[in-house]
Inverse folding.
């Protein structure tokens, strides 16, 4: 999916899940929806009606790989 196609994605069917690194203390939490075709959406769990960052699945996988490898520490 091209970047332009990520604009205006309907998130009404998104199934959000909290990061496994998020605790139950109400602190800084990230939620991810990976059930939408061709897009991974990321949002702040404290602001569920706020904006979401939209990424292609390839960009998301690259980001996660970089996190796991420690490149972003």
């Amino acid at each position: 999916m091209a970047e332009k196609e990520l604009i205006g994605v309907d998130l009404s069917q998104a199934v959000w899940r909290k990061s496994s690194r998020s605790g139950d203390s109400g602190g800084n939490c990230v939620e991810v929806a990976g059930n939408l075709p061709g897009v991974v959406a990321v949002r702040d769990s404290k602001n569920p009606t706020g904006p979401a960052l939209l990424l292609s699945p390839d960009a998301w996988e690259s980001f996660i790989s970089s996190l796991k490898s420690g490149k972003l520490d």
Observations:
- The chain has a mean pLDDT of 85.
